[in-house]
Amino acid sequence: MELNSQSLIGISLWLLLSCSLSYGTVQDIACLESVKNSLKDPYGYLNSSWNFNNDTEGFICKFTRVECLHPDENKGTIKLGPWGGPGGSAWDYDPGSGSSIIEIEIGHGDVVNSLAFKSIISATGKTVLSGKHGGTGGASRTVGDLANKNPERFCKNETIIFRKRLHRFTEFVDAFLVRFGNLKLCMQKFRLLIGLLDVEASSLLDKWIGLAIKNEVKDLDLNVQTYKNAMYTLPWIIFSAASLNALKLEGCKLEHIPEIIRLFSLKSLILKKVAINEEIVKKLTSQCPLLEDFSLDHFWGLKHISVVKPQKLKICSICGPINELKRIELAAPSLQQLAITCGVRGSIIIDVADCSNLKVLKLKGINLIDQEFHRLMSKVPMLEDLKVLSCALIERITISSYRLKKLSVSYCFKLKEIEIDTPNLLSFYYCNHPVLTSIVNAPCPWELYFKNAIDELGNRVDPDAQWFLNMKDFLGVSNQIRSLVIDVRSKRDSFNFEEFRNNLSSLPTEVEKLRVCLDAQPSSFAALLDGLLGICYSRKFYVYIQQELHHNYYEWLCNEMVNIDDNCCNSRNIKCWRHYLKDFKIKGLHFYGPSLNRRPLGVNAVMHLWPKLPNGILECRLDWCFPKSIKGF
């Protein structure tokens, strides 16, 4: 993992103060005036809005960087970051003087050169400061931009400068937290982002965490930017923070923790980029009686995740890539939402035997075989929302549920068959190659995205007649298709239209919106378009245009849509799409952003402009007339 200097010196603190609360009181106004008087504001960022010659209740809520919620909620916020200029921030203000301002945010980052706070020496990665004033209010000299440079590549002079900046900034944070503790105020939220360079920094971090816990911090967010082999080891005191409601840890090592955990108030636990073992996961989730939200995101040292006995756990998220993971075991009777995202190469077992109230399930990048997938589905009878994405081993999906309301299946490239009986389904999204279907009951509108099939090597397979016929069969089992995107990539002329039309037994299926992307040889355009409009039709027709691939595509498409041979299908009961198309209009070309022209354009105008038109989406209006029945069918 590469670290840049911005990551290593970026420290943000959010300190929320517990006070008696009101709304726009005299104490609030005095508080803000003291803040303003403690700032150097050479560019007038605050003078334009921080005007205290107004006696209207709540007028301070209109000040720049001040947020007030509804009076009934009794909360206000001062946000002083990410200002501070290159000097960071420190400010001579007694937090106890502000009765309804409960959040003080002090930020240090790349958005700088605005306000200068008194009594602080620090830097971002672009300037070195002198004196006791930061931002543009203090003297500085430019030393070059180190923000995107790995410290390992610093020259000697850059390394010296960098260490001085980090040392001065940690001095400020240390002094600020000590001062805050001396005020004996409860700390609502403490967020710290820092990079570790040596053992001294680790001991400082231990001290800061201890100070936050001593001040009964409610929400602790700790992000340590470091290398995997030099991760910060958490102090034991953090597991005795009885006041904590929310704990977020990133870049930390959880090797040894106390036998008894005293996180009695903890409701949310988020662990990201952590080194952790199975026993600690089990202990953390079982000894926090109020835990409702648990997340593991990128971790090391786990082959088996066991989350057992969290009686109030409602939301659980496990995210990789985690190639060593073999098994996930969940026993949480109150669990309602579960998301598992993995990068596992081998198969994995997911056991949710005691999660009968689960309503939302997302599976992404998980190598579940058919048997394991269907066993998992049988354990969650209350499921209402299911997403299956990039599950490479699944070949057959069978779902029968009266409770399921949302279903999404995407990028399961080995999938061969899908069968669902879901009479109360409200939405169905499918993004994959067309497969065999036997859908008994799914009366909701569908949203479909058809792509080429993928071979064993991960390459797209050129579409043939059977690919188009499978797509037509898939569409034929739906009562309503809200949106259909067909993305065809072909390196050779692989589609035989005559073979396709000889196997047609029904008219095209109607869809509300049809979007087509053709990435193929120009010699294949006509046959592919015939195949696409032979399986479905729509009044709203969109074509994705790439000028570098389709130099004359506008002109070709316009000519193709208006040139009709009345005698081309005399011997066939099901005729080609040209016989059913009654009118064709171009409504406009949409960039990948704002529309170039939303008004209808004549065919001649588009043909005249096409050499100069950029990439975009050509919107067309097609009017059709199909017979109610066909002889012989």
UniProtKB/TrEMBL annotation:
Domain Jacalin-type lectin as annotated: residue spans: 80-142
Pfam families: Jacalin, LRR_At1g61320_AtMIF1
Keyword line: Lectin, Signal
Keyword Signal attached: yes
Domain At1g61320/AtMIF1 LRR positions: 198-342, 352-434
GO molecular function, one term: carbohydrate binding
Signal sequence extent: 1-24
Stated family: Belongs to the jacalin lectin family.
PANTHER family: F-BOX DOMAIN-CONTAINING PROTEIN, OS02G0105600 PROTEIN
Protein known as: Uncharacterized protein
Organism in which the protein naturally occurs: Acer saccharum
Top-level taxonomy: Eukaryota, Viridiplantae, Streptophyta, Embryophyta, Tracheophyta
